[in-house]
Give the backbone structure.
Amino acid sequence: MQAIPLTKSQARKIILHAAGLAKPAQFGYGIEAVYNLIEHLGYLQLDTNYVVERAHHHALFARIPDYQTEWLAELCNEGRVFEYFISESGFLPMDDFRFSLPVKEEFKAKGKNLTKAELLLMQQILDQVERDGVVRVSDFENDRLEASTGWWDWRPAKVALERLYFQGRLTISRDTKFHKSYDVPMNLVHTDTDLTMPTAAEFARYVIKRTLGALGISSVKEMSWRARRVKKNLVKSELDNMVREGEVLTIQIEGIKGPLYMLANQEMNPEVSGDVFILSPFDILNVFRPRLREFFDFEYQVECFVPAPKRLYGYFSLPVLAGEIFIARMDAKADRKNKLMLVHNIHFEGVKLNKETIKKFISALKAFAVFNKCLNIQLVKSNNTEYLEELKKAF
Protein backbone atom coordinates (compact mmCIF):
# COMPACT_ATOMS: atom_id res chain seq x y z
CA MET A 1 0.00 0.00 0.00
CA GLN A 2 1.34 3.42 -0.99
CA ALA A 3 2.32 5.81 1.82
CA ILE A 4 -0.08 8.69 2.47
CA PRO A 5 1.64 12.10 2.10
CA LEU A 6 1.18 14.64 4.90
CA THR A 7 2.57 18.11 5.46
CA LYS A 8 4.39 18.84 8.70
CA SER A 9 1.52 21.02 9.82
CA GLN A 10 -0.99 18.21 9.22
CA ALA A 11 1.26 15.83 11.13
CA ARG A 12 1.62 18.22 14.08
CA LYS A 13 -2.14 18.59 14.35
CA ILE A 14 -2.62 14.82 14.33
CA ILE A 15 0.05 14.45 17.03
CA LEU A 16 -1.45 17.18 19.23
CA HIS A 17 -4.96 15.80 18.85
CA ALA A 18 -3.73 12.33 19.85
CA ALA A 19 -1.93 13.81 22.87
CA GLY A 20 -5.07 15.60 24.04
CA LEU A 21 -3.57 19.04 23.39
CA ALA A 22 -5.61 20.18 20.40
CA LYS A 23 -7.63 22.46 22.67
CA PRO A 24 -8.28 23.00 26.39
CA ALA A 25 -10.50 20.37 28.01
CA GLN A 26 -10.38 18.12 24.95
CA PHE A 27 -11.56 15.29 27.22
CA GLY A 28 -13.92 17.43 29.29
CA TYR A 29 -13.90 18.25 32.99
CA GLY A 30 -13.98 16.44 36.31
CA ILE A 31 -12.78 13.04 37.44
CA GLU A 32 -14.37 11.25 34.48
CA ALA A 33 -12.22 13.34 32.15
CA VAL A 34 -9.17 12.08 34.06
CA TYR A 35 -10.19 8.47 33.50
CA ASN A 36 -11.11 9.10 29.86
CA LEU A 37 -7.73 10.71 29.21
CA ILE A 38 -5.77 7.86 30.81
CA GLU A 39 -7.90 5.35 28.93
CA HIS A 40 -7.18 7.20 25.69
CA LEU A 41 -3.43 7.59 26.22
CA GLY A 42 -3.13 4.13 27.72
CA TYR A 43 -0.22 5.28 29.84
CA LEU A 44 0.48 8.29 32.04
CA GLN A 45 4.13 8.57 33.03
CA LEU A 46 4.87 9.09 36.71
CA ASP A 47 7.77 11.15 38.03
CA THR A 48 8.77 12.09 41.56
CA ASN A 49 10.41 15.47 40.83
CA TYR A 50 8.55 18.05 42.94
CA VAL A 51 10.15 21.33 41.79
CA VAL A 52 6.70 22.09 40.42
CA GLU A 53 3.73 19.72 40.75
CA ARG A 54 4.71 16.16 39.85
CA ALA A 55 4.69 15.22 36.17
CA HIS A 56 1.63 12.95 36.20
CA HIS A 57 -0.51 15.60 37.90
CA HIS A 58 0.98 18.30 35.69
CA ALA A 59 0.09 16.37 32.51
CA LEU A 60 -3.49 15.93 33.69
CA PHE A 61 -3.88 19.59 34.67
CA ALA A 62 -2.55 20.72 31.28
CA ARG A 63 -5.51 18.95 29.67
CA ILE A 64 -8.21 19.15 32.36
CA PRO A 65 -8.50 22.74 33.65
CA ASP A 66 -10.37 21.85 36.86
CA TYR A 67 -8.12 18.90 37.74
CA GLN A 68 -7.68 18.06 41.42
CA THR A 69 -4.65 15.97 42.40
CA GLU A 70 -6.66 13.68 44.67
CA TRP A 71 -8.68 12.42 41.71
CA LEU A 72 -5.87 10.18 40.48
CA ALA A 73 -5.57 8.40 43.84
CA GLU A 74 -9.35 8.07 43.91
CA LEU A 75 -9.40 6.33 40.52
CA CYS A 76 -6.64 3.98 41.70
CA ASN A 77 -8.50 3.19 44.93
CA GLU A 78 -11.65 2.47 42.93
CA GLY A 79 -9.68 -0.03 40.85
CA ARG A 80 -10.23 1.81 37.56
CA VAL A 81 -6.57 2.74 37.17
CA PHE A 82 -3.43 0.95 38.35
CA GLU A 83 0.25 1.75 38.62
CA TYR A 84 2.92 -0.35 36.94
CA PHE A 85 6.27 -0.29 35.19
CA ILE A 86 5.49 -1.17 31.55
CA SER A 87 8.15 0.99 29.89
CA GLU A 88 8.51 3.53 32.70
CA SER A 89 6.60 3.91 35.95
CA GLY A 90 3.11 5.16 35.25
CA PHE A 91 -0.64 4.77 35.49
CA LEU A 92 -2.72 2.58 33.17
CA PRO A 93 -6.43 1.82 32.79
CA MET A 94 -7.39 -1.37 34.65
CA ASP A 95 -8.85 -2.76 31.43
CA ASP A 96 -5.25 -3.10 30.23
CA PHE A 97 -4.12 -5.08 33.28
CA ARG A 98 -3.60 -8.35 31.40
CA PHE A 99 -1.05 -6.63 29.16
CA SER A 100 1.18 -5.99 32.16
CA LEU A 101 1.51 -9.75 32.68
CA PRO A 102 4.21 -10.39 30.01
CA VAL A 103 6.39 -7.69 31.60
CA LYS A 104 5.90 -9.28 35.03
CA GLU A 105 6.92 -12.64 33.63
CA GLU A 106 10.16 -11.08 32.36
CA PHE A 107 10.90 -9.75 35.83
CA LYS A 108 10.14 -13.17 37.34
CA ALA A 109 12.62 -14.75 34.93
CA LYS A 110 15.32 -12.35 36.12
CA GLY A 111 14.53 -13.40 39.68
CA LYS A 112 15.96 -16.86 39.02
CA ASN A 113 19.43 -15.37 39.40
CA LEU A 114 18.83 -14.01 42.90
CA THR A 115 20.65 -15.35 45.94
CA LYS A 116 18.95 -17.53 48.56
CA ALA A 117 19.09 -14.64 51.03
CA GLU A 118 17.35 -12.30 48.58
CA LEU A 119 14.65 -14.85 47.80
CA LEU A 120 14.13 -15.59 51.50
CA LEU A 121 13.68 -11.89 52.31
CA MET A 122 11.16 -11.53 49.48
CA GLN A 123 9.17 -14.51 50.74
CA GLN A 124 9.22 -13.23 54.33
CA ILE A 125 7.90 -9.83 53.21
CA LEU A 126 5.26 -11.42 50.98
CA ASP A 127 4.11 -13.62 53.88
CA GLN A 128 3.87 -10.54 56.11
CA VAL A 129 1.73 -8.63 53.59
CA GLU A 130 -0.56 -11.62 53.05
CA ARG A 131 -0.90 -12.07 56.82
CA ASP A 132 -1.04 -8.50 58.13
CA GLY A 133 -2.03 -6.36 55.14
CA VAL A 134 -0.64 -3.21 53.53
CA VAL A 135 2.97 -2.22 54.24
CA ARG A 136 5.28 0.68 53.52
CA VAL A 137 9.07 0.74 53.39
CA SER A 138 9.03 2.65 56.68
CA ASP A 139 7.43 -0.39 58.35
CA PHE A 140 10.73 -2.24 58.10
CA GLU A 141 13.77 -1.61 60.23
CA ASN A 142 16.85 -0.26 58.52
CA ASP A 143 18.38 -3.53 57.36
CA ARG A 144 21.31 -1.95 55.53
CA LEU A 145 24.59 -3.61 56.45
CA GLU A 146 26.81 -0.98 54.84
CA ALA A 147 26.56 2.80 54.43
CA SER A 148 24.54 3.99 51.45
CA THR A 149 26.55 4.82 48.33
CA GLY A 150 23.96 7.09 46.73
CA TRP A 151 20.38 7.87 45.77
CA TRP A 152 19.64 4.51 44.08
CA ASP A 153 21.42 2.41 46.70
CA TRP A 154 18.23 1.08 48.29
CA ARG A 155 18.32 -1.00 51.42
CA PRO A 156 17.41 -4.71 51.13
CA ALA A 157 13.76 -4.42 52.28
CA LYS A 158 13.08 -1.69 49.72
CA VAL A 159 14.72 -3.76 46.97
CA ALA A 160 12.67 -6.81 47.94
CA LEU A 161 9.40 -4.85 47.91
CA GLU A 162 10.17 -3.42 44.48
CA ARG A 163 11.09 -6.82 43.08
CA LEU A 164 7.80 -8.26 44.34
CA TYR A 165 6.02 -5.33 42.71
CA PHE A 166 7.84 -5.75 39.38
CA GLN A 167 6.99 -9.46 39.41
CA GLY A 168 3.31 -8.71 40.03
CA ARG A 169 3.24 -10.46 43.39
CA LEU A 170 2.53 -7.13 45.08
CA THR A 171 0.75 -4.06 43.79
CA ILE A 172 1.26 -0.40 44.60
CA SER A 173 -1.19 2.23 45.79
CA ARG A 174 -0.51 5.84 46.75
CA ASP A 175 -2.30 8.31 48.97
CA THR A 176 -2.92 11.95 48.09
CA LYS A 177 0.52 12.85 49.48
CA PHE A 178 2.19 10.38 47.08
CA HIS A 179 3.16 7.94 49.84
CA LYS A 180 3.58 4.44 48.40
CA SER A 181 1.99 1.33 49.92
CA TYR A 182 2.33 -2.31 48.91
CA ASP A 183 -0.52 -4.80 48.95
CA VAL A 184 -1.48 -8.13 47.42
CA PRO A 185 -3.13 -7.81 43.98
CA MET A 186 -6.45 -9.31 45.09
CA ASN A 187 -7.08 -6.23 47.25
CA LEU A 188 -6.67 -3.75 44.39
CA VAL A 189 -7.63 -5.69 41.28
CA HIS A 190 -11.33 -6.41 40.77
CA THR A 191 -12.29 -10.06 40.60
CA ASP A 192 -13.82 -9.55 37.15
CA THR A 193 -10.54 -8.20 35.72
CA ASP A 194 -9.26 -10.23 32.77
CA LEU A 195 -6.08 -12.01 33.92
CA THR A 196 -5.54 -14.02 30.74
CA MET A 197 -1.93 -13.96 29.62
CA PRO A 198 -1.89 -12.36 26.14
CA THR A 199 -0.14 -14.16 23.34
CA ALA A 200 3.01 -12.59 21.91
CA ALA A 201 0.98 -11.32 18.94
CA GLU A 202 -1.73 -9.86 21.21
CA PHE A 203 0.86 -8.07 23.31
CA ALA A 204 2.56 -6.64 20.24
CA ARG A 205 -0.73 -5.39 18.79
CA TYR A 206 -1.64 -3.86 22.13
CA VAL A 207 1.65 -1.91 22.17
CA ILE A 208 1.19 -0.79 18.56
CA LYS A 209 -2.37 0.43 19.07
CA ARG A 210 -1.62 2.14 22.36
CA THR A 211 1.50 3.86 21.04
CA LEU A 212 -0.19 5.09 17.87
CA GLY A 213 -3.29 6.12 19.80
CA ALA A 214 -1.24 8.33 22.14
CA LEU A 215 1.37 9.61 19.69
CA GLY A 216 -0.84 9.91 16.60
CA ILE A 217 2.15 9.25 14.34
CA SER A 218 5.00 6.95 15.30
CA SER A 219 8.07 5.16 14.05
CA VAL A 220 8.84 1.50 14.73
CA LYS A 221 11.55 2.62 17.15
CA GLU A 222 9.07 4.40 19.40
CA MET A 223 6.70 1.44 19.41
CA SER A 224 9.54 -0.95 20.17
CA TRP A 225 10.61 1.29 23.07
CA ARG A 226 7.22 0.75 24.69
CA ALA A 227 7.66 -3.03 24.40
CA ARG A 228 11.34 -3.18 25.35
CA ARG A 229 10.76 -4.90 28.71
CA VAL A 230 9.57 -8.00 26.83
CA LYS A 231 12.39 -9.75 25.03
CA LYS A 232 11.82 -11.09 21.51
CA ASN A 233 8.57 -9.14 21.19
CA LEU A 234 6.72 -9.24 17.86
CA VAL A 235 6.13 -5.51 17.38
CA LYS A 236 7.89 -5.27 14.01
CA SER A 237 6.29 -8.35 12.47
CA GLU A 238 2.80 -7.60 13.79
CA LEU A 239 3.09 -4.03 12.56
CA ASP A 240 3.68 -5.38 9.05
CA ASN A 241 0.62 -7.61 9.44
CA MET A 242 -1.54 -4.69 10.60
CA VAL A 243 -0.43 -2.61 7.61
CA ARG A 244 -1.36 -5.44 5.24
CA GLU A 245 -4.72 -5.79 6.99
CA GLY A 246 -5.40 -2.05 6.65
CA GLU A 247 -5.57 -1.38 10.40
CA VAL A 248 -2.41 0.74 10.28
CA LEU A 249 -1.46 3.19 7.55
CA THR A 250 2.01 4.11 6.32
CA ILE A 251 2.54 7.85 5.95
CA GLN A 252 5.18 10.05 4.40
CA ILE A 253 6.21 13.51 5.59
CA GLU A 254 8.61 15.67 3.67
CA GLY A 255 11.91 16.10 5.46
CA ILE A 256 11.29 13.32 8.01
CA LYS A 257 12.83 9.90 7.61
CA GLY A 258 10.33 7.05 7.51
CA PRO A 259 8.69 4.70 7.63
CA LEU A 260 6.06 6.36 9.81
CA TYR A 261 2.69 4.96 10.81
CA MET A 262 -0.72 5.92 12.14
CA LEU A 263 -3.97 4.11 12.88
CA ALA A 264 -6.43 3.88 10.00
CA ASN A 265 -9.19 5.36 12.16
CA GLN A 266 -7.08 8.37 13.17
CA GLU A 267 -8.80 11.69 12.46
CA MET A 268 -6.85 13.16 9.56
CA ASN A 269 -7.67 16.87 9.84
CA PRO A 270 -8.26 17.76 13.49
CA GLU A 271 -8.57 21.40 14.47
CA VAL A 272 -5.97 22.86 16.81
CA SER A 273 -6.69 25.97 18.86
CA GLY A 274 -4.11 28.67 19.47
CA ASP A 275 -4.22 28.17 23.22
CA VAL A 276 -1.07 28.07 25.34
CA PHE A 277 -0.09 24.96 27.33
CA ILE A 278 2.72 24.83 29.90
CA LEU A 279 3.91 21.23 29.75
CA SER A 280 5.88 18.85 31.91
CA PRO A 281 9.24 17.60 30.62
CA PHE A 282 7.77 14.09 30.99
CA ASP A 283 4.58 14.81 29.08
CA ILE A 284 3.73 12.23 26.40
CA LEU A 285 4.36 14.94 23.81
CA ASN A 286 7.93 15.50 25.03
CA VAL A 287 9.36 12.13 26.04
CA PHE A 288 10.68 11.25 22.58
CA ARG A 289 13.09 14.12 21.90
CA PRO A 290 13.77 13.36 18.20
CA ARG A 291 10.04 13.81 17.51
CA LEU A 292 10.15 17.33 18.91
CA ARG A 293 13.06 18.18 16.66
CA GLU A 294 11.65 16.57 13.52
CA PHE A 295 7.99 17.58 13.78
CA PHE A 296 8.17 20.80 15.82
CA ASP A 297 11.72 22.07 15.16
CA PHE A 298 12.18 22.16 18.94
CA GLU A 299 15.48 21.04 20.47
CA TYR A 300 14.77 20.05 24.05
CA GLN A 301 16.50 18.39 26.98
CA VAL A 302 15.59 18.02 30.65
CA GLU A 303 18.50 19.81 32.25
CA CYS A 304 18.00 18.50 35.78
CA PHE A 305 20.13 15.59 34.51
CA VAL A 306 22.81 17.97 33.17
CA PRO A 307 25.69 19.28 35.38
CA ALA A 308 24.88 22.83 36.50
CA PRO A 309 27.71 24.55 34.57
CA LYS A 310 26.46 23.02 31.32
CA ARG A 311 22.80 23.98 31.65
CA LEU A 312 21.55 26.38 28.99
CA TYR A 313 18.02 27.12 30.20
CA GLY A 314 17.74 25.99 33.82
CA TYR A 315 17.29 23.01 36.13
CA PHE A 316 13.68 22.15 35.21
CA SER A 317 12.63 24.02 32.09
CA LEU A 318 9.03 23.46 31.03
CA PRO A 319 8.12 23.51 27.32
CA VAL A 320 5.50 26.12 26.41
CA LEU A 321 3.25 25.26 23.47
CA ALA A 322 1.01 27.71 21.58
CA GLY A 323 -1.20 26.07 18.97
CA GLU A 324 1.16 23.81 17.05
CA ILE A 325 4.37 25.74 17.84
CA PHE A 326 6.65 25.68 20.88
CA ILE A 327 7.15 29.32 21.80
CA ALA A 328 9.31 29.09 24.94
CA ARG A 329 10.79 27.03 27.73
CA MET A 330 10.33 28.16 31.29
CA ASP A 331 12.57 27.24 34.24
CA ALA A 332 10.24 27.44 37.22
CA LYS A 333 10.08 26.44 40.88
CA ALA A 334 7.11 26.46 43.23
CA ASP A 335 8.08 28.01 46.56
CA ARG A 336 5.15 26.48 48.41
CA LYS A 337 6.08 27.89 51.80
CA ASN A 338 5.85 31.45 50.52
CA LYS A 339 3.16 30.62 47.92
CA LEU A 340 5.40 32.04 45.19
CA MET A 341 5.90 30.73 41.67
CA LEU A 342 9.50 31.64 40.95
CA VAL A 343 10.28 31.73 37.23
CA HIS A 344 14.06 31.83 37.02
CA ASN A 345 14.23 32.06 33.25
CA ILE A 346 11.90 32.22 30.25
CA HIS A 347 13.73 31.50 27.03
CA PHE A 348 11.58 32.44 24.05
CA GLU A 349 12.08 30.58 20.79
CA GLY A 350 12.74 32.49 17.58
CA VAL A 351 9.10 33.08 16.69
CA LYS A 352 7.18 36.35 16.64
CA LEU A 353 4.37 36.39 19.19
CA ASN A 354 1.26 38.52 18.76
CA LYS A 355 -0.53 40.19 21.67
CA GLU A 356 -3.21 37.49 21.75
CA THR A 357 -0.62 34.75 22.27
CA ILE A 358 1.11 36.77 25.00
CA LYS A 359 -2.28 37.23 26.66
CA LYS A 360 -2.93 33.50 26.55
CA PHE A 361 0.53 32.81 27.96
CA ILE A 362 -0.24 35.14 30.87
CA SER A 363 -3.50 33.30 31.54
CA ALA A 364 -1.70 29.94 31.41
CA LEU A 365 0.95 31.22 33.83
CA LYS A 366 -1.66 32.41 36.32
CA ALA A 367 -3.53 29.10 36.17
CA PHE A 368 -0.30 27.13 36.54
CA ALA A 369 0.68 29.14 39.61
CA VAL A 370 -2.70 28.53 41.25
CA PHE A 371 -2.46 24.82 40.43
CA ASN A 372 0.89 24.81 42.25
CA LYS A 373 -0.77 26.53 45.25
CA CYS A 374 1.06 29.79 44.61
CA LEU A 375 -0.56 33.22 44.96
CA ASN A 376 2.18 35.28 43.32
CA ILE A 377 4.56 34.99 40.39
CA GLN A 378 8.11 36.37 40.24
CA LEU A 379 9.73 36.62 36.81
CA VAL A 380 13.52 36.91 36.98
CA LYS A 381 15.04 36.95 33.51
CA SER A 382 14.47 36.20 29.83
CA ASN A 383 16.29 36.35 26.51
CA ASN A 384 13.51 38.66 25.25
CA THR A 385 13.12 41.76 27.39
CA GLU A 386 10.13 43.01 25.37
CA TYR A 387 8.05 39.91 26.10
CA LEU A 388 9.31 39.76 29.68
CA GLU A 389 8.11 43.31 30.35
CA GLU A 390 4.68 42.50 28.94
CA LEU A 391 4.45 39.50 31.25
CA LYS A 392 5.62 41.53 34.26
CA LYS A 393 2.92 44.12 33.69
CA ALA A 394 0.31 41.42 34.16
CA PHE A 395 1.68 40.47 37.59
